[in-house]
Amino acid sequence: MSEHIMNTYGRLPISFVKGDGCYLYDKHDQRYLDALTGIAVCGLGHSHPAVAKAISDQAQTLMHTSNLYGIPNQEALADKLCELSAMDTVFFSNSGAEANEAAIKIARRYGHTIKHIDLPTIIVANKSFHGRTLSTLSATGNSKVQVGFEPLVSGYIHVNYNDMDAIKQVADNNKNIVAIMVEPIQGEGGLITPSDHYLQDVRHFCDANNYLMILDEIQTGICRTGQWFAGQHAQIVPDIMTLAKGLGNGFPIGACLAKGQAAEILIPGTHGSTFGGSPLACAAALATIKTMQTEQLDQRAAELGLYFQTGFKQSLAELISQKKVLDIRGKGLMIGIELDRPCTELVKQALDKKLLINVTADSVVRLLPALITSDEQADDIIAIVSQLIIEHTY
């Protein structure tokens, strides 16, 4: 590892030089089955030919002009995203954190210009993760990632996730609330899925109080959970929704979508991005979405998610009965297996077996496989992970 790279990551002792579908290859041409996909990024797997061709063709044509001019690919991508989501407008960025920054700025400006509030405040959730910029870090409900970066940005109140009573109590005691910002599923927090009616209750509460509902779909969006957007499971449409990760299948791009009043808040001079929504990034995203639509990968993610859950519940049945496996949860291809003990060492043990997984919240095995994963590859993942968990808990 180069001594000139800042020491900000606890990297595993391996580098990959090639990807093909659900597999990555190291410099020795050793093949690894990828059940993490760059943390929910490469939904179509690695080096997908349609995305690679779109990037190559666009790179040979035009990569960047800035947002001082019209960008046809950006317009086409905005139209497609709004068609899929029932939203009205899109601001394009380079990452999920930037998309969330845009959402936060919309909420604050909404507070100032529409609600005439001097200190606009957003309700956010404990155990959430919204990004690493100072503002999104402050919105994040995890003190571990905030330590050493104080003073944090003000304007956020944290409550427990999946707790409407807590939201109502805060709202009753604070007249500065302008928005509620939540993840449909808390990914970094441990694959925490809310009750079936939670998002609907948040939506109704925002409507009743003239708050903006912000859905952070950075990890859950773009077919990951078996719908194009996880909020669609609850049949709700937010005022603001943020996307990134799977949108470009590996090419960096983020998007902040807005609807109704929220869609009209930002005007020229209030926000911008040099690289956001470039012809190249949008070409990658358009190819990604077209492929997912053609191959109906939202349905495939839903079906395969059930396949994984059934397989794990069968293979880990004894540990479930012994309460060594506390829960197997998630939606679609966003799967969490919670153990009764820390299990971070399973990441390295899985790597030794040529499988890439992740552990979050210390005790939750997190799987984010590609939407193109075959049944046979799913069987391999189930078998290896189950065996590792069995060995770890005995």
Describe this structure in words.
- By secondary structure, this protein is an alpha/beta fold.
- The protein folds into 2 domains: 117 residues, Aspartate Aminotransferase, domain 1 (Alpha-Beta Complex), CATH 3.90.1150; 245 residues, Aspartate Aminotransferase, domain 2 (3-Layer(aba) Sandwich), CATH 3.40.640.
- Helix content is 36%, strand content 18%.
- It contains 12 helices and 15 strands.
- The strands form 3 sheets. It has a 7-stranded mixed sheet with strand order 4-10-9-8-7-5-6, with helices on both faces. A 4-stranded mixed sheet has the order 1-2-3-13. The protein has a 4-stranded antiparallel sheet with strand order 11-12-15-14.
- Helix 2 packs antiparallel against helix 8 and helix 3 runs parallel beside helix 8.
- The chain is globular.
Please provide a brief summary of the model.
The protein is of the alpha/beta class. Helix content is 36%, strand content 18%.
Compile the SSE list and pairings:
Elements: E1 16-20, E2 23-26, E3 31-34, H1 37-40, H2 49-59, H3 72-85, E4 89-93, H4 96-113, E5 121-125, H5 134-139, E6 156-159, H6 164-173, E7 177-182, H7 198-209, E8 212-216, E9 240-243, E10 254-258, H8 279-294, H9 297-315, H10 317-321, E11 325-331, E12 334-339, H11 346-352, E13 355-356, E14 358-360, E15 364-367, H12 375-393
Parallel strand pairs: 3-13, 5-6, 5-7, 7-8, 8-9
Antiparallel strand pairs: 1-2, 2-3, 4-10, 9-10, 11-12, 12-15, 14-15
